[in-house]
Design a protein that fits this description.
This protein is 49% helix and 16% strand. By secondary structure, it is of the alpha/beta class. It folds into 2 domains: 2-180 and 359-381, Glycogen Phosphorylase B (Rossmann fold); 183-356, Rossmann fold (3-Layer(aba) Sandwich). The strands form 2 sheets. A 7-stranded parallel beta sheet has the order 3-2-1-4-5-6-7, sandwiched between helices. The protein has a 6-stranded parallel beta sheet with strand order 10-9-8-11-12-13, with helices on both faces. Helix 9 links the parallel strand 8 (207-211) and strand 9. Helix 4 runs antiparallel to helix 5. The chain is globular, with a radius of gyration of 21 Å.
């Protein structure tokens, strides 16, 4: 079975949650596979571990030029996809749904025998509504999301929460394909690796870590929240510092460490180096990769209820949940002060995430469903 994954953004190297999901899902998918992506002109033709890439350059000079450049590439993407003669085509749902609705229409004509999958990363219409996007954008999103879910052969959702929402909105209940983690990534980190990354970024092991691509509204909201509370955290826990990965923070503070966007290979070690992981997310849909990665690395997590939505993680067992400034500050301070309990919670969270969210096990049922459809279509053609 040959599968083409199509991401209308740069999935490798991954610098965002959607990119991480697309790259890792493609890498874990069985059989022959290739990842199509829009890139900045610097991506290789193959990843270090052997995943082939087909890169389409996209202008980033202004919104209008970017949109125009994207639309002109659809015909190239569809032609190039057809040349691969794929059995399965997976649309990576981290981009605007109307783009995929248009591309799906084009590819149906060029690849009529292919099995089409919409790998949704969230319920996009909810994101647009919460961001108060213009009515025309919200309307186009809802129309395209409904069309995709009803016209593809297999649709997926990252959680029961999202699947239930899609069923209510669009009358389609997708298969589950939760976001996952790569267990071996964290197991390979040595004490020497941790020492090297601490030296590289000026870390001392007392940092609370927030990861998230800045410019994405839920992440920007989370950073503003952390800035409101972190003076209080430091007063109760001298030496505590906040690390923000994923972009440049405009504000400054004596307790802030902001390396920006660091090399992909360094991210797991920075996570392991940290005292705890933070996820104060108050809006959006889908599930949060950052929580899964914090937990997989074995560090304790403080998150909002919204951030942990759709994950089987329990308060004060696998992580701490807190939904306002006072409770979040208190939860962070508890984990700084009681390190034995923090480490025990980190171990319990790690065990649960590793049990339930390893990528190969997550993609296997969806890949099997696709393989069955491919076989049935081959039988019909005989």
């Amino acid at each position: 079975m040959k599968t083409v994954f199509i991401a209308l953004y740069q999935a490798y190297p991954p610098v965002s949650g959607s990119a991480s999901v697309s790259f890792r899902a493609a890498r874990a998918w069985p059989g022959e596979k290739i990842l199509f992506q829009l890139d900045d002109g610097r991506a290789p033709d193959i990843t270090p571990d052997g995943l082939p890439l087909v890169n389409f350059r996209l202008s980033t000079d202004g919104r209008l030029r970017k949109l125009a450049g994207l639309s002109t590439r659809f015909s190239r993407i569809s032609r190039r996809t057809a040349l691969e003669r794929p059995d399965v085509i997976v649309f990576e749902g981290g981009s605007w749904a109307p783009y995929y609705a248009l591309l799906h229409s084009m590819l149906r004509r060029r690849c009529p025998r292919a099995v089409f999958v919409y790998h949704s990363h969230n319920v996009e219409w909810i994101l647009r509504r919460e961001r108060r996007d213009r009515a025309v954008v919200r309307g186009a999103t809802k129309w395209a999301e409904r069309r995709l879910l009803r016209s593809v052969d297999v649709a997926t959702a990252v959680s029961e929460v999202d699947a239930g929402m899609m069923a209510r909105l669009y009358g389609v209940r997708p298969m589950l394909l939760p976001n996952g983690i790569e267990i071996g990534t964290f197991d390979r980190i040595s004490s020497a690796d941790i020492a090297a990354v601490r030296d590289r970024y000026g870390l001392n092991g007392q940092e609370a870590l927030f990861m998230g691509l800045l410019g994405f509204p839920p992440n920007d909201e989370a950073v503003r929240f952390l800035f409101r509370i972190f003076d209080g955290v430091v007063r109760m826990n001298p030496g505590a510092r906040l690390v923000v990965l994923g972009g440049t923070v405009r504000e400054s503070a004596p307790w802030l460490v902001n390396p920006g966007t660091i090399p992909f290979a360094d991210v797991p070690t920075v996570i392991r180096s940290s005292a705890l992981g933070l996820a104060p997310v108050f809006s959006g849909s889908g599930t949060r990769i950052k929580i899964l990665e914090y937990a997989a690395a074995g560090i304790p997590v403080v998150a909002t209820t919204k951030a942990a939505e759709g994950l089987p993680l329990r308060d004060r067992v696998h992580l701490r949940l807190a939904d306002d400034e006072a409770a979040f500050t208190s939860a962070i301070s508890d984990l700084y002060r009681d390190r034995p309990e923090a480490e025990a919670m980190g171990a319990r969270g790690s065990a649960e995430v590793r049990r339930a969210f390893d990528w190969p096990g997550l993609v296997a049922p969806v890949a099997a469903a696709c393989a069955s459809l491919v076989e049935k279509r081959a039988e019909i053609r005989k």
